[in-house]
Write a structure and sequence with these properties.
single chain, mainly alpha, 11 helices, globular
Length: 267
């Protein structure tokens, strides 16, 4: 559940800041701050470097995540966080979950029921309400496919140090977004308050990746992905509290369904 709170909080901070600056530039800062933070943490923890195979898959994961986060932030800035975040989460979870079932077999009946309830909860949270702005859904879809590829590559990284695997994934993510920023007409203007916000978003984002790596190392891929993909609940709640976004009975029902699904999937 650590990934749920970390990614949910990070997405809220990043999406909020993206309304004031270029999303690709913000994504580069997120990856840069995450890289610095996780490198320092791994070194202080004296973590053993993973194998070359694990490094390769971590770097590959970072390539897919690179532009996905920029697309995701752009989607959040264009429309409602309560729609873009869950839509991306559903797509990012569905593909790896199907791969996990295909490679590891069907989970038990209670977990399957939890999967269904979690999917229902995410759908209810993302259910468009009357008058809700739906711009940026195409970008949210693209981000969902990119994050799905990230999840699959992270699983292939194996059982090396979660700190280093998350750290190496940030290397290529930062490289991809930095290249786009350098070769595009991107504004580098960023208010001081927004810069601090994005730094914290980067720390939360990379921390969520560490939790996800550990989840895939200690359990099934489909269970880890579905559980970690409940993070939009945190994003939606924060958007309601701080941005006063529409929060109807359907969204409340979705949040409750997601909460009930957690112990069922973890069974």
């Amino acid at each position: 559940m650590g990934a749920v709170f970390a990614w949910g909080g990070g997405d809220f901070l990043g999406g909020f800041a993206s309304r004031r600056a270029n999303p690709t530039f913000l994504a580069a800062i997120v990856y840069g701050s995450g890289l610095i933070f996780m490198t320092a943490l791994a070194l202080l923890n004296h973590s053993v470097l993973p194998s070359h195979r694990a490094m390769f898959w971590a770097l590959a994961a970072g390539c897919f995540a690179g532009m996905s986060l920029a697309n995701f932030y752009k989607a959040l800035s264009l429309g409602s966080m309560g729609i873009a975040a869950p839509l991306t989460a559903v797509l990012a979870a569905a593909i790896p979950a199907l791969v996990g079932i295909a490679t590891e077999g069907w989970p038990n009946a209670v977990q399957i029921a939890g999967f269904v309830l979690a999917a229902l909860g995410i759908w209810l949270v993302s259910r468009p309400e009357g008058g809700t702005e739906t711009k940026g859904l195409g970008l949210a879809v693209m981000a969902g496919f990119g994050f799905a590829a990230f999840f699959l590559c992270i699983k292939q990284a194996g059982n090396g140090s979660a700190l280093w695997i998350a750290d190496f994934s940030r290397v290529t993510s930062l490289a991809v977004t930095a290249v786009v920023v350098m070769f595009s007409r991107t504004s580098f203007q960023l208010p001081r308050a927004s810069f601090i916000t994005v730094i914290f978003a980067g720390i939360l984002d990379v921390s969520g990746s560490v939790f996800f790596v550990r989840a895939t190392q200690t359990g099934r891929l489909d269970s880890a992905v579905i559980l970690c993909s409940l993070y939009p609940v945190i994003t939606v709640v924060l958007a309601k509290i701080f941005l006063k976004e529409q929060f109807t009975g359907w969204k409340l029902a979705g949040i409750l369904a997601a909460l009930i699904a957690v112990p069922m999937i973890a069974a």
